[in-house]
Structure formats: structure tokens, C-alpha cells
């Protein structure tokens, strides 16, 4: 048995719809600039390939949880998106084989410190300050692919306090799911427990303490989270 000098952190995990088993989260990969309408609202170049970045596994907030309003921002934004969970992986996965590695799907939020994103983009700085902070990765329960089928279409929606703010279809992804898995595996060895946030559609915006966010993708378990008070 390994003896640790300090107590190790708990294993990050997600619930699985219809099961008491938990899905252990290893890494959170994220894809930016993957819907044309969102690229336009961010005044970015439609010809640029989607951006790949990561969030820490312990940034996960589960369904029904609370997201403390984060430190170091005055412009806190939601980005609702489809999440893909992997049961296997490897390097250089072909697009034809990509679907074989999918465990299931969930709905998630890429929470963003928007005020720091503009400065980072202007100066070519890393995205961690704007994307990879505490509680920045709410993700709902995973629906197994055996129950949902392979997802190629389906509305992705977000409501803030009951008002629809984002409503698009995953068929509009620039990089499709098979392409995302294949491209990621060119740069990283994908592993069981990895999850992928596939990108957000147009309609992103700011939230404040007390707001309730409801997120859904057709055929998957929905997710609801609340924005809490300032992080202590």
C-alpha cells in the first residue's frame, strides 16, 4: 500500500443514468470555436480550426450543485455543450474507429471568465486563466451509448431562470464527434475516463449570483445548477 505524505484528493466522478456505478474522470478536454454562429458572436475568424484546451478534473460540479461566483472576474459566462465520455482510447484513432471508444454522453457547461479571455486572446496567452478555474466544469449524468445511440443530431439548450438563451443542434458542430476524437488522439493518448466538451453554440452570456441554469441535450439526462455567492 502506498503511503502518502498528505491526504490524496478524492477521485472526480460523474453519475451514470440508471446505474449506481460512477464514471471516474481522468481528464477534461474542451473544444472551442466549434459552431459558426458562436465564432461570429465572438468576432473570431470562421476559418480558424477549433481550439483545444483542458480543465482540471476536480473542476466538475454535478447535477443539482452550486457554482460559487468565482474570484478574479466580473464577467462570468455560461457555455452549454454536449459532453462525450470515453471508455477506451489510444493514439492516432481513425475517424472510422472513433465511435467504438464512446462510453456515453452528457450535457455540460464550460464556465468562462470572459473578461480575461479577450486579454488572453489579444496577447496570445494561455487559456487557463479564463477556462480552467475551480468549479468551471459542471457536467450532468452520463447516458450510456447503448441507451442513447450514437448522437449526430439533437437540440442543445440552455435556460437562465427559465428563459431560453442557447438553442441549437449538435448537427451544426464544425468538427463532428468522430473528427474530434481522432484529432485529439493525434496530440494526446486518450484513456478510459476522459471526457470531451465538444463546443458551445451561440447565445453565451453573463450570469450572477442566484441565477439558475438548466441545460439539456435531446435524449440525455438534463442538468440544473445554481450560481452561488462569491467564492471564499
From TrEMBL:
Q: Which UniProt keywords apply?
A: Hydrolase, Metal-binding
One GO MF term on file is: acetylpyruvate hydrolase activity
> Which residues belong to any copy of the Fumarylacetoacetase-like C-terminal domain?
28-227
The record ties this protein, via InterPro entries, to: Fumarylacetoacetase-like_C (IPR011234), Fumarylacetoacetase_C_sf (IPR036663)
Superkingdom of the source species = Bacteria
Ion transport listed as a keyword = no
Q: Which PANTHER family match?
A: ACYLPYRUVASE, FLUTATHIONE S-TRANSFERASE
Q: What is this protein called?
A: Fumarylacetoacetate hydrolase family protein
Which organism is this entry from?
Pseudaminobacter soli (ex Zhang et al. 2022)
Amino acid at each position: 500500500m502506498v503511503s502518502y505524505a498528505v491526504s490524496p484528493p478524492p477521485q472526480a466522478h460523474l453519475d451514470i443514468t440508471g446505474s449506481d456505478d460512477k464514471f471516474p474522470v481522468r481528464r477534461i478536454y474542451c473544444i472551442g470555436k466549434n459552431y459558426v454562429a458562436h465564432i461570429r458572436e465572438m468576432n473570431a475568424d470562421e476559418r480558424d480550426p477549433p481550439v483545444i484546451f483542458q480543465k482540471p478534473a476536480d473542476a466538475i460540479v454535478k447535477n443539482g450543485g452550486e457554482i460559487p461566483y468565482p474570484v478574479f472576474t466580473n464577467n462570468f459566462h455560461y457555455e452549454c455543450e454536449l459532453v462525450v465520455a470515453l471508455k477506451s482510447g489510444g493514439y492516432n484513432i481513425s475517424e472510422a474507429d472513433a465511435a467504438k471508444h464512446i462510453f456515453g454522453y452528457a450535457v455540460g457547461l464550460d464556465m468562462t471568465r470572459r473578461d480575461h479571455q479577450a486579454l488572453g486572446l489579444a496577447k496570445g496567452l494561455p487559456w487557463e486563466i479564463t477556462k480552467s478555474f475551480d468549479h468551471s466544469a459542471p457536467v450532468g449524468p452520463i447516458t450510456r451509448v447503448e441507451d442513447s445511440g450514437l448522437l449526430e443530431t439533437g437540440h442543445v439548450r440552455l435556460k437562465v431562470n427559465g428563459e431560453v438563451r442557447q438553442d441549437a443542434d449538435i448537427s451544426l458542430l464544425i468538427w463532428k464527434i468522430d473528427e474530434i476524437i481522432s484529432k485529439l488522439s493525434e496530440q494526446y493518448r486518450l484513456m478510459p475516463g476522459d471526457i470531451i466538451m465538444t463546443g458551445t453554440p451561440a447565445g453565451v452570456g453573463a450570469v450572477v449570483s442566484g441565477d439558475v441554469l438548466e441545460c439539456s441535450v435531446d435524449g440525455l439526462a438534463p442538468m440544473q445548477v445554481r450560481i452561488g455567492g462569491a467564492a471564499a
